[in-house]
């Protein structure tokens, strides 16, 4: 059985160029496949690291981020207005999108429909319809296949808004699901479901800082049914972890040298 790749770097400034190279390779493969790059992103600490990876000017044609071809979705989102401090869209906008050079054609971004914030089931259903439309219809595809998912890992092993032990981990039908009892605030959210996450062409996790080392040990040395471990099991070597050394201190799982 294939296993997740674990790439570790002394610090975020060494991790960022590797993440950039990996994202650009996924981007180019997506564009070659269907003319666009369909990517879903998390909130939390990810957008800041992503900005560090993707904002520097390209060093060559091969190193270019083709923002005009990006179609950005949210791996999870909180049921709040887009300008709320808890919004994952808001975070991506302030950390990354607002910092693109003015001459850049902005990517297509798919935020949640904030008219539906009062009903998380409707919010999730509407976001699923966005995917249905973008991925050519639920009748023709069993699951949407993202070119890349860029995910975080919480200190409890959650990813997207899939939390340890939560019934949502058993969801097999919906592509996007509501959650009303997230243990991490805010409680009301929507999230991609596990089958969608594990079916992506590639899944990249970014986890940095010593605050993650205990959960990294658990994920890579047993799994314990943690959501991040379930993604590793489902995606195998399509999953890659970009971490800094403090996040994997004491983790015995074999790191790979980063080579594309
Ligand atoms: O609540 C959330 O947390 C996770 C992890 O965040 P991090 O700050 O520990 O990286 C994040 O991936 C998710 O999108 C977010 O809604």
From TrEMBL:
Pathway: Carbohydrate degradation; pentose phosphate pathway; D-ribulose 5-phosphate from D-glucose 6-phosphate (oxidative stage): step 2/3
Family: Belongs to the glucosamine/galactosamine-6-phosphate isomerase family. 6-phosphogluconolactonase subfamily.
CDD domains reported for this sequence: 6PGL (cd01400)
Organism (species): Dichotomopilus funicola
Keyword annotations of the record: Hydrolase, Isomerase
Record's function text: Hydrolysis of 6-phosphogluconolactone to 6-phosphogluconate.
GO biological process, one term: pentose-phosphate shunt
The keyword Cell inner membrane is assigned to this record: no
Protein name: 6-phosphogluconolactonase
Keyword Nucleotide-binding: no
Glucosamine/galactosamine-6-phosphate isomerase domain span: 13-236
GO MF: 6-phosphogluconolactonase activity; isomerase activity
Catalyzed chemical reaction(s): 6-phospho-D-glucono-1,5-lactone + H2O = 6-phospho-D-gluconate + H(+)
InterPro entries: 6-phosphogluconolactonase_DevB, 6PGL, Glc/Gal-6P_isomerase, NagB/RpiA_transferase-like
Protein EC: 3.1.1.31
């Amino acid at each position: 059985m294939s296993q997740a790749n674990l790439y570790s770097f002394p610090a975020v400034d060494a991790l960022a160029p590797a993440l950039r190279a990996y994202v650009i390779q996924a981007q180019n493969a997506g564009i070659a496949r269907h003319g666009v790059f369909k990517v879903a992103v998390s909130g939390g600490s990810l957008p800041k690291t992503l900005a560090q990876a993707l904002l520097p000017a390209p060093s060559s044609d091969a190193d270019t981020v083709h923002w005009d071809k990006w179609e950005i979705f949210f791996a999870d989102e909180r049921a709040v207005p887009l300008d709320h401090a808890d919004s994952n869209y808001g975070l991506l906008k302030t950390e990354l999108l607002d910092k693109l050079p003015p001459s850049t054609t902005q990517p297509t971004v798919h935020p949640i429909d904030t008219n539906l914030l009062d009903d998380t089931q409707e919010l999730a259903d509407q976001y699923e319809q966005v995917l249905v439309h973008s991925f050519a219809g639920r009748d023709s595809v069993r699951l949407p296949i993202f070119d890349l998912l860029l995910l975080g890992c919480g200190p409890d092993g959650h990813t997207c808004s899939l939390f340890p032990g939560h019934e949502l981990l058993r969801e097999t039908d919906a592509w996007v699901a509501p959650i009303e009892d997230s243990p991490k605030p805010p409680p009301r959210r929507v999230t991609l479901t596990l089958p969608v996450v594990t079916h992506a062409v590639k899944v990249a996790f970014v986890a940095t800082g010593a605050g993650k080392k205990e959960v990294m040990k658990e994920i890579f040395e047993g799994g314990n049914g943690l959501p991040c471990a379930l993604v590793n099991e489902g995606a195998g070597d399509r999953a890659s972890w970009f971490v800094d050394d403090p996040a994997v201190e004491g983790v015995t799982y074999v790191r790979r040298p980063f080579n594309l």
